[in-house]
Amino acid sequence: MLLSQLPEDVLYHILSHLDYKSLSRLSQVCKTIYHFVNRDVVWRKIAKEFLNTGITRNGTDIYPSIPLKERVKIAQNWYDGVCKRAIPLKWKTKLLPWLQLDGNVLFLSHAADIRAYRLRPDSGRLQRNPFEIYSGHKGDVCRFVLTDSHLISGGSDGRILVHSRRRDKTLELSGHNQEVNCLDSKNGLIVSGSRDQTTRIWSLTSSCPRDTIPMYDRVWSVAISPTLRDCENATTERILELGGRQARLGPGKKKGFFYL
Fold this sequence. Notes:
Layout: H1 8-15, H2 20-26, H3 31-37, H4 40-47, H5 68-80, E1 99-102, E2 105-110, E3 113-118, E4 132-134, E5 141-146, E6 150-155, E7 159-164, E8 170-174, E9 180-186, E10 189-194, E11 198-203, E12 211-214, E13 222-224, H6 236-239, E14 240-242, E15 247-248, E16 257-258
Antiparallel strand pairs: 1-2, 2-3, 3-4, 5-6, 6-7, 7-8, 9-10, 10-11, 11-12, 13-14, 15-16
Helix pairs in contact: 4-5
Keywords: WD repeat
Protein name: F-box and WD repeat domain containing 4
Pfam families: F-box-like (PF12937), WD40 (PF00400)
């Protein structure tokens, strides 16, 4: 009996004992084996052993649209240092930029601005000049996040700027009195953390914070829970996940904890 003629549950059990190298070699045997081995269910056990494959501890797949085999390959190449070294952009300033790739557009902070560069379709290299520049900060951009409709940036001036990606419009959110170290946004909700030892929750419909949470130290990282769907009506306890430790809510707040 050929390997491809075995029942699928038996095949899954056999393949579960192979490492990623053996699975890759096995997929080169024939088209039938190739299509079977490329299924996400075959790579799920291996993916849990790698970092940044999108498989959480409880088995949830965060990036189901990307084949799991490709994510394992990228994770292994990252671990082994297998990559192409190139300098897409270069300038004389020593400030470490914040950058994010969105499709074929690279957003890159440069001092007080955020510049958007397109990738050339023929070579995959960045175009020399940005096609869009988002500005407005009076100091360096410390962090920015992208949504489908907005680019949200926090700066050393303590301000948060909400730039529309579809029209020439910018909303300023003022509340922090020191640099904004971290941001996150989801479904019209914005969460920010600052050196001023506060975390603030904002909505896109108001320039005033919806809630302010005092912390015991500067805030380096914030994240809106990925399981949260109804952001507008969610309680403060369900919105935030703060890094490093548990943080009890400040005076006047509901009792509870934030986790990361």
